[in-house]
Structures are given as C-alpha cells and as structure tokens.
C-alpha cells in the first residue's frame, strides 16, 4: 500500500468523540517507550505525525489519523509507565476498555512488543484483556535493528511459547524496525488485506 495522504484528525479521551465509525480502524498500543510513535511515523512516512512519548501524568489521549481517506490509524495511550498513580492507571483502563468495546469499526489492534526483552507481564496482561474482550489483534516486535536477527527470532519464539501456555491459536506477528524501516510493507500489506475482506 502506498501512503498518499496521512493527516491528524482528533485527540480525545472519550470514545463518543472519536470520528464517525465509517471507515475501518487500526489501533497501535504498547508499553511506554516501545517505539510506537516511531513505528507510526515510519509506516506513514510522516516524521512527527505521531508525537514521541507523552510524559507520565500528562493527559492520555486517543489520537485519530486519516490515511488515504480510506482508514483510520489510532495512536492509543501506552501502558506500563513505571511511576504512574493508581488513579491514572485506573483511568487509562477505563478509557481503553471503553474504546475497545465500543469502537465498532475497529478491525485490528497492533500490540507492540520490544523485541529485545523477555516476555513482560504487562504485555501478556494486556493481550489477555484483548482475548477476553474478543478484540482481533496482531503482534509487532519493535527495534529489531538493535540486535542480531537470530536474537530477535529467539525472543519472538520465547514470547509465542509463553502465549501458547494459555492460547490455543497464536496471533500473526510482524518484525519491525523504525530505524531500518523493516516490516513496513508487511504491516501495510496486512492492513490492505484486512480492508479488502
Ligand atoms: P513510544 O513511547 O512507544 O512512542 O516510543 P518512541 O517512538 O518515542 O521511541 C522510544 C525510543 O526508542 C526513542 O528514543 C526512539 O528513538 C527509540 N526507537 C524507537 N523505535 C526504534 C527502532 O526501531 N530502532 C531503534 N534503534 N530505536 C528506536
């Protein structure tokens, strides 16, 4: 898929205020610092489209972008900040659950996983929540330029093995680097494929 057009639409905390659900929607989420903004900018080939990590404590927003006048890309607030109050964690949970359960045009959630780390409890917990809510998702392993391909493959397999303890079917996954621009065609090709279904 060629990205001919990518523009910011809205930022808000309420699902009711999101753009009308008239187009298929793809949401990106992950732990803070996982490389979400960098990945969104790489995919859309627009530097600065997604702003790099908001600081903990700052308002956490659902950001909508319109791509090629065809689909929405959504930058969701990340999870797993080390120093975040119980209160803002609860607020995040409420907002994300509302978004995931009410957004009828949501085609797929891209869950970003740092390819360098062993399976992280927060990621597995978030994935479990998606499963419980019946939300379709895929995995995106990020920052693969930071290590050898063999190491990435090993970490991916470890993550999938961990998931297979509780999941019967494993999700599709993508291996990406915002720096090396790896995985761009695969992720955009997948979105195109789902859009055509
Ligand atoms: P976010 O908090 O998930 O939006 O993460 P950012 O996109 O702001 O990235 C966090 C940090 O990781 C920044 O310093 C980025 O430059 C760096 N980063 C993100 N993606 C990559 C990548 O693919 N390769 C490398 N080497 N660094 C990356």
From TrEMBL:
Coiled coil region boundaries: none
One matching Pfam family: MMR_HSR1
Residues of the EngB-type G domain: 22-197
MF GO annotations: GTP binding; metal ion binding
Highest taxon of the lineage: Bacteria
InterPro entries on file: G_ENGB_dom, GTP-bd, GTP-bd_ribosome_bio_YsxC, P-loop_NTPase, Small_GTP-bd
Keywords in alphabetical order: Cell cycle, Cell division, GTP-binding, Magnesium, Metal-binding, Nucleotide-binding, Septation
GO BP: division septum assembly
Function: Necessary for normal cell division and for the maintenance of normal septation.
Protein family (similarity comment): Belongs to the TRAFAC class TrmE-Era-EngA-EngB-Septin-like GTPase superfamily. EngB GTPase family.
HAMAP family from the UniProt entry: GTPase_EngB
Name the UniProt record assigns to this protein: Probable GTP-binding protein EngB
């Amino acid at each position: 898929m060629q990205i001919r057009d990518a523009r910011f639409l809205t930022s808000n905390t309420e699902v009711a205020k999101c753009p009308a659900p008239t187009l298929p929607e793809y949401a990106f989420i992950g732990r803070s610092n996982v490389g979400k903004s960098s990945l969104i900018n790489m995919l859309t080939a627009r530097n600065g489209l997604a702003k790099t990590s908001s600081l903990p404590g700052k308002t956490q927003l659902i950001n909508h972008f319109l791509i090629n006048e065809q689909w929405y890309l959504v930058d969701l607030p990340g999870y797993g900040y080390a120093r975040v109050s119980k209160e803002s964690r609860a607020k995040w949970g409420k907002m994300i659950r509302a978004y995931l359960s009410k957004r009828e045009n949501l085609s797929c959630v891209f869950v970003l996983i740092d390819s360098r780390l062993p399976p992280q409890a927060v990621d597995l917990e978030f994935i479990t929540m998606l499963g419980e809510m019946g939300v379709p998702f895929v995995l995106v392993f990020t920052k693969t330029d930071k290590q050898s391909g063999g190491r990435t493959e090993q970490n991916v397999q470890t993550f999938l093995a961990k998931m297979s303890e509780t999941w019967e079917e494993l999700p599709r996954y993508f291996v990406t680097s915002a720096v090396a621009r790896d995985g761009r065609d695969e992720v955009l090709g997948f979105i195109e494929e789902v859009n055509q279904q």
